[in-house]
Amino acid sequence: MANLKAGLIGLGMMGRHHARVLASLEGVDLVAVADPGGDQFGVAGGRPVYENIEQLIAAGIDYCMVAVPTQYHAEIARALAEAGVHAMIEKPLAGSSAEATEIAKAFEAAGVVGAVGHIERYNPALQALRVRLENGDLGDIYQITTRRQGPFPSRIADVGVVLDLATHDIDLTAWVTQSHFAAVSAQSAHKSGRQYEDLIAVTGRLEDGTVTSHLVNWLSPMKERLTVVTGEKGAFIADTLLADLSFHANGTVATAWDDVAHFRGVSEGDMIRYAISKPEPLRTEHEAFRDAVLGKEADIVTLQQGLSTVRVAEAVIQSAAEDRTIKVAGESAES
C-alpha cells in the first residue's frame, strides 16, 4: 500500500515540531508545507513551500496538519473539507463554538476524518492514569485539580490563556473521567497589558458529580503542569512535564494518636511512583491520526470533543466576565 501523502500548513513553533514528526512517520510522506510567511525555521527539508491552503491542496495531499493561529482555523478547515482532505487541527478547534460547530459540520458532510491536536491526551502519564482509573484503581473519583502555569509565550497573540492553555485541562479532565462539564465558575486577571486574560482560576462540576479546580496562567516564572485526581482509595499525581505518574494510597494502618487521626480524616499510606514507557506525545498523536485516516481503530480527539472543549472554555470566559456560575450547554457530545 502506498504511503499517505501529508501536508502541513503553519510553520511556527508547533509547525516545525509537526514537520519533524511527519517527516519520519511510518506510512506517511510529508510532501509539501505552506505558510504565507515562508519557511522561517528551515523545516521544509527541500519540499515545496507554498503560500496558502489552496496551493497545498493542489499538491494532491491525503491529509493535512493545521498549525496556524486559531483565528484562521475555520477558513482553512472549510477549504480542506470541501476538497475532501482529512485534517488534524491544532487546539483549540476554533476561537468560538460557532466556528467550531461550522468546522465539525463541514467535515461530517464531506465524510472526511477530522481531529483536534490536544496533545496532552497523549502524554504517557495521563495515558497511564486513564487506564488505571478505568481499572478502578482509585475507586470513586471525588476531585480533579490541575495547575498549568509558566511565563508568557510571546508567539500567542490572538487568544487568551483560557483558549490557549486551559483548553488542555478542560479536555484532559473530561477525557480521563469520561464525564462532561456541567457547570463552571471562574475568576480572571489581566496583568500583562494585553486585551486577553492571562490568568484564570476555575472551579467546576462534572456531570458525574466530580469537583474540578484549574489554575492556569502566563504570569509564573516557573513552568508547572500538574494533574491530581483524588478519590476513594487515595490520589494520583500526574506531572506531564516529566511524564511521571505516582499514587498516594489511603493508609490501612490505624493512627493511635487520636488528635491527629481526628484532624486528618484519612491516613497516609504507601506512595508508588510508576515506571512507565515514555514515547513522545506528538508522535503518538500523529500515529493515532494516521491510523484513523487509514480506517483503523484509533484514539483521536474528535471534532465533536474539540467543540465541547470550546463550549466549556466560552463558559469559563463568560463566568469570569459576569462573576457568576455558568451552566455548560451542549455537553451531550461524545467523549
TrEMBL record:
Chain ranges of the Gfo/Idh/MocA-like oxidoreductase C-terminal domain: 132-328
A Pfam family hit: GFO_IDH_MocA_C
Domain Gfo/Idh/MocA-like oxidoreductase N-terminal: from-to ranges: 5-118
GO molecular-function term, one example from the UniProt record: nucleotide binding
Domain of life: Bacteria
SUPFAM superfamilies: Glyceraldehyde-3-phosphate dehydrogenase-like, C-terminal domain (SSF55347), NAD(P)-binding Rossmann-fold domains (SSF51735)
UniProt-listed InterPro entries: Gfo/Idh/MocA-like_OxRdtase_C, Gfo/Idh/MocA-like_OxRdtase_N, Gfo/Idh/MocA_Oxidoreductases, NAD(P)-bd_dom_sf
PANTHER family with a match to the protein in the record: BILIVERDIN REDUCTASE A (PTHR43377:SF1)
Family per record: Belongs to the Gfo/Idh/MocA family.
Protein name: Putative dehydrogenase
